[in-house]
Amino acid sequence: MDIVQQAPILMILCPFLGAFAVSLAGLIQRRWCYPLTVLFTAGSAYAGLGTLIQVLRTEGGVIRYRMGGWEPPFGIEFRLDALNAAIALMVVVVALLVAIYSRQTVASETAGKEGHFYTLFLLLTVGVLGISMTGDAFNLYVFLEISSLSSYALIAMGRGRAAFSCFNYIIMGTIGASFYLLGVGYLYIKTGSLNMTDIARILQEHGLYSSNSVRIGFLFILIGVWIKMAFVPLHRWLPNAYTFAPSTTSCLVAPLMTKVSIYVMIRIMFSVFNPEFVFGVGPRSDLVVWLAVIAMMVGSFYALAKNKLKMMLAYLVIAEVGYMVGGAWLANATGLTGAIFHILADGLMTLALFLAAGAIYYKRKSYNIVATKGLFGKMPFTMGAFAIAALSMIGIPPTCGFFSKWYLISGGIEAGHWGFVVGLLTSSMVNAVLFFRILERAYFEKPELPYEPGRQGKNALNFVERKGVDEAPLTMLAPLWAASLGLVLLGVYSGVVIDFISRYVNSVGFQ
Amino acid sequence: MMNLHNLPPSAILIFGALLLPLMPKQLRNLWCVVLPAAAFVWVWQVPLGHEFAISFLDFQLELVRVDRLSKAFGYIFTLNATIGLIYAFYVKRWAHHAAALIYIGSSLGVVFAGDLITLYFYWEAMAVFSTFLILFRGLEGSKKAYGAALRYVLVHVAGGLLLVMGLCICYQKNGGDLTFSAELFKDPHLGSWLVLVGFLVNAAAWPLSAWLPDAYPEATVTGGVILSAYTSKTAVYTLLRGFPGYEILIPLGCIMAMYGIIYALLENDMRRILAYSIVNQVGFMVVAAGIGSEWAINGAVAHAFCHIIYKALLWMSAGAVLYMTGKSRCTDLGGLYRYMPWTMVFGTIGALAISAVPGTSGFTSKSLTIHAAEQAHLFWPWLVLEVASAGVFLHAGIKFPYFVFFAKVKDWTLEKADIGEPPWCMRIGMALMAFLCIFLGVYPEPMYAILPYQDVFQTDPYQVFTAGHLVSQFQLLMFSGLVFFLMLPMLRRTNTIAIDTDWLYRRIVPMFYRFTDWSLNGINRWTAALVVDRLIPRLNHFFARGPYRVWVRVNMPFARLNRSMGEVEEFSARRFFYRQAMLGILPIGVTAFLAVVGLLILFFA
Amino acid sequence: MSEETREQETVATPPAAPKHGGFDPGLIRKLWIALGVACALPVIAELFVDRHHGHGEHFPVDWGFGFYAVLGFLACAGSILLAKGLGLFLKKNEDYYDHDEPS
């Protein structure tokens, strides 16, 4: 039994067992929680690497891991191909980086609750990993709920309006998950199977594409997933939930949850169903693309109006979701390639930006954008990494943002959807204005505090302004820089990654 | 046992330099002298024809390629470095030594590189590390040094960009073979022109020459000595290697020679005079490269060899004066012969050498170039070179020592109480250089022996020390001297500078910068004020608050129907609905509503 | 009245720069003579030397006796005049560039 072949399950087992270990550790000695979390996520990342290598090496490019040796469609399987191997790896790498990063922020923001926090952290990782790896539709729902519940709890641990935003998120998230479940239910009724490949086969063989139930099922899944990914106009839960969550939670949740939901959408659209169905019998694709354009505009312009850094970034996430959904619904290979590459790129970008925002909050004790003034002098490394991530958001080579936008725009032109192209370009321009404003403030102005230091009372901040460079700690800087450099590396090696993604896209069979 | 011949001499200097911070302070300066001496031994010992390549990615990098041409340059570079670092023994800042060593090592790397890619890496390293020699003067208190260093590095980076562009094109054209030889550039095309221009930037060819007199005088005392030798001569080497016989180099070199003289006559700062003098002398070498015959290349190499020595000597003496007096402008100097006699003697020997006075190394080397011009029947270049030779005596042979050491009687002790000879290390350095100048002037055979083309000495025997030649040279020189003293009143020094081609980027660019700042930032500010500060928040407000107001408006009539309300009740009812919308209904309710509606729409669409 | 003007004169005019830079005029005269001799010697020497008029075979120009002396003289005088001429355009005050320096 080759240990390498067990890599997929190891990837999920590590955080799973880790969750148990950490919850125990939280009862015994809170100080162990952090090292244990890092250890288990590192193990998971290592397994993830092994999985990716396996996928690369396998003939046919698909590995299937059967749980307990049970054959599908009765058994549950993990199915890793060119689409999700990289995404799964991204998930664990993000989890690892955030775990390393979390030391000081968790201790300061959720003091006393480290055990709970890290347990939920690892469970969230389990959930998201499971979503990205599983080949069974119902199993996906289970993991979806695991990740959602963990994320609700993690978000609710924040300050101020966190509990309330989380409540909104719970309701809306549950609506989304329930829609998904309903959709899967419809498909199960019609096909009798829960395994994705199997469903696809049965739908094909029995010509069920014209069935209304199947169509409704697809739409339920679609809407459910759209709620989970905060696709306009179903996005209202996201900004508040991400803003008021603790720093570490936002860093973990923002790059992962929405991206993985987009992955689910693509998987359902193209692996369970196929392009003929989706773009033929399914809803009008150009309508969806227009919705995506609105998402981009809403996201970018609202971000411009916000004066809280994390709120701004949350709206940018909404805009990015618009890019990806639009790309996938352009109905051509280029657009889909762009969308998939953007999942990876955006995961890293969002990670880097939220990590930087967390670091800024940790040192400056404020989320207000005014706190970024003069920060290049005080926190040069943080701002340097932030600048790289900003360049990627805007789409400047050689960061990966440029390459994903390139593909998305090419796909838009190919599909003749000029609205999408214009929307994408406008959004990039607005992003440019947004970030250059911050960078300009950070570079040229003097550092300023948006409140009076020494404020007493329950909001006393214990803030001491130190002279000169006052950088975030190394455990926060290292993951931040790893993410930023990863953006550049992903851009430089984009050719390799695109080749890899193309394996999947070509198998989808666009005309 | 690793073949030491495979260790590029650049590695000796560069890695040795990296060890500097780890060494105890007392040994550092000694180490700095040992390293180039070791490199000298390497050059001496390495067999002709030795080649060493490594492969990196897709490329074959020839790190070591030894032939007579590279060996000759190797000898003089290492020799100059050894003596120069003896001169620099007084420098306390180890980073300065490290930068100098890496710079020198990189130039050795260029000289021994067999392919253009290796060359390019060393080329860029030279540009970067030589900048530090200028920057360190800024740390010693000069404000102008920072600007000069910035301009210097920008010019060199630009030149490097042209070089790499040309390199890429050559790579394409040549099918991936970038072995550095004249073969590569035989048929001129865009790539070879770009590479040529890249090399010419470093050679300070007019009009790309203004960086040299701009930057070198702003370097540190030792920095100037070291800078004077390497960048320009490395460029000469590359021209001799890659572009021999390119005819455009002949008029270009002639222009450089005259340009150097004219500007040197106009300048006031003694080190700027010497900088323009470098351009002038390199002009001779460029002409020789353009002629390209075996005599010409021999002449260029001999000239480069001797030039490095006497130019270093001149910069050393100027540096010594600067070090002891703190001044470098001719208007501030003069009358130093009494206080620094040895410096004066050495400086004068250097001045005589550059003027090619018989008995000095300049005579034995420049004559070869002029002979090559005669051989090739190139009348006008020959004439220009002779004129330039006269002019050299004028601006460097006489003007420099005269205004610095003589010109007037001045009591320096009033200004600087401790005026006197420079530290012993400087004196030894100058003495060694002066010795070499005279030695090679009287007994040039060792230098001739390392010249690339030895056969020409047999096939076309040329005697340097013929009576006729001596007489002609003395005539030329003495009458030049006569003109100097006759026209001395016209040459009175003034507190001015002469603007050079760098006026273009020093004046035009700031103007352009100010214009773009005014126009673009103006638009930026206006848009920010209008759109960002006013429009967007208003829209935001509208979309955020609007729905709540709609909800209030929808519900109020029903509330009013229920019972009649006073003002206070109405207000609290409004508030109730508003908050209801804000807290519960709108985010969740609308989402749910839209989800269902969306479902229906998508189903029927 | 004349005393005042005289005082004004002596106060107003700066002291004249010492002739020959402060060197002893006798020394200067001796140097000039030495220079003259140094110029004459090579010219005389040419009478005794065969300057291997090799230039004749290479170049169309070789003005014979004293060629190099004349060449040196004209070249230098020309250079100086040319420099003076160009200096009218090119010479600027020392701090010409200073207010353009990047801060």
Automatic annotation (TrEMBL), chain A:
Cellular component GO terms, alphabetical: plasma membrane
Pfam families cross-referenced by the UniProt entry: Proton_antipo_M (PF00361)
UniProt domain NADH:quinone oxidoreductase/Mrp antiporter transmembrane: residue ranges: 136-427
GO biological process, one term: ATP synthesis coupled electron transport
Family membership noted in the UniProt record: Belongs to the CPA3 antiporters (TC 2.A.63) subunit D family.
Keyword Cytoplasm set for record: no
Main location: membrane
Subcellular location: Cell membrane; Membrane
UniProt entry tagged with the keyword Lipid biosynthesis: no
Name listed for the protein in its UniProt record: Monovalent cation/H+ antiporter subunit D family protein
Membrane topology annotation: Multi-pass membrane protein
Keyword tags: Cell membrane, Membrane, Transmembrane, Transmembrane helix
Organism the protein comes from: Sulfidibacter corallicola
Origin: domain of life: Bacteria
InterPro entries listed in its UniProt record: CPA3_Na-H_Antiporter_D, NADH_UbQ_OxRdtase, ND/Mrp_TM
A GO term, aspect molecular function: NADH dehydrogenase (ubiquinone) activity
Membrane-spanning segments: 6-27, 34-56, 82-103, 115-132, 138-157, 169-189, 209-231, 252-275, 287-305, 312-333, 339-362, 383-409, 415-436, 476-501
From TrEMBL, chain B:
Membrane topology: Multi-pass membrane protein
Keyword Endoplasmic reticulum: no
InterPro entries the UniProt entry points to: ComplexI-like_HydComp, NADH_UbQ_OxRdtase, ND/Mrp_TM
Example GO biological process: ATP synthesis coupled electron transport
GO cellular component term of the entry, any: plasma membrane
Pfam families linked: Proton_antipo_M
Transmembrane segments: 6-23, 30-48, 72-91, 98-123, 149-171, 192-212, 248-266, 273-295, 301-324, 336-359, 379-404, 424-444, 464-488, 581-604
Keywords: Cell membrane, Membrane, Oxidoreductase, Transmembrane, Transmembrane helix
Compartments where found: Cell membrane; Membrane
Entry keyword Oxidoreductase: yes
Protein name: Na(+)/H(+) antiporter subunit D
Annotated organism of origin: Sulfidibacter corallicola
Automatic annotation (TrEMBL), chain C:
Top-level taxon of origin: Bacteria
Region described as Disordered: 1-23
Residue intervals passing through the bilayer: 27-45, 65-83
Keyword annotations: Membrane, Transmembrane, Transmembrane helix
Protein name as it appears in the record: Uncharacterized protein
